[in-house]
């Protein structure tokens, strides 16, 4: 009788392409591979590709305070910060210096509520938005 070896740890499991069928994501992956050159061992290009392959839940966001701190390091003046994930707002930061940023996505953009006006007569609850099927219109007198 031979020894039954476990082969589940023989290969490294990682994504080699994005699972999403989004054409813009796939175009950016293709351009990243083309720019990097397949023979280049650039750490930057490897990290960008790895983050582009990640699912949206696993793609880490970057707080604004950390990006400011990283861009203040010596030798990073007049450089462009490349962020594959989202940059989240940080309420602790009072003043934001001038930065050049290339960002892939913005957080919570599609779930922003539709608000026509900030007055009291426009309802803003989830079930009273135009995108949710019906909307409470402001009360008015009938015209005869």
From TrEMBL:
Residues 108-144 are annotated as: Disordered. Residues 2-102 form the Large ribosomal subunit protein uL15/eL18 domain. GO terms for molecular function: RNA binding; structural constituent of ribosome. GO terms for cellular component: cytosolic large ribosomal subunit; rough endoplasmic reticulum. InterPro entries: Ribosomal_eL18, Ribosomal_uL15/eL18, Ribosomal_uL15/eL18_sf. Transmembrane segments: none annotated. It holds the Pfam family Ribosomal_L18. It comes from the Eukaryota. GO terms for biological process: translation. Residues 120-130 have a biased composition (Basic and acidic residues). Keywords: Ribonucleoprotein, Ribosomal protein. Component of the large ribosomal subunit. Belongs to the eukaryotic ribosomal protein eL18 family. This is Large ribosomal subunit protein uL15/eL18 domain-containing protein.
């Amino acid at each position: 009788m031979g020894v039954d070896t476990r082969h589940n740890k023989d290969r490294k499991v990682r994504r080699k392409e994005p699972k999403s069928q989004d054409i813009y994501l796939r175009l950016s992956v293709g351009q990243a591979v083309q720019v990097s050159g397949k023979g280049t061992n650039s750490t930057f290009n490897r990290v960008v590709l790895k983050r582009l392959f990640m699912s949206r839940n696993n793609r880490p966001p970057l707080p604004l305070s950390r990006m400011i701190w990283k861009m203040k390091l010596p030798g990073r003046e007049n450089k462009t910060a490349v962020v594959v994930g989202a940059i989240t707002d940080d309420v602790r930061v009072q003043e934001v210096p001038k930065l050049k940023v290339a960002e892939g996505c913005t957080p919570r953009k599609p779930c922003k509520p539709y608000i026509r006006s900030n007055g009291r007569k426009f309802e803003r609850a989830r079930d009273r938005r135009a995108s949710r099927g019906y909307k409470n219109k402001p009360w008015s007198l009938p015209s005869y």
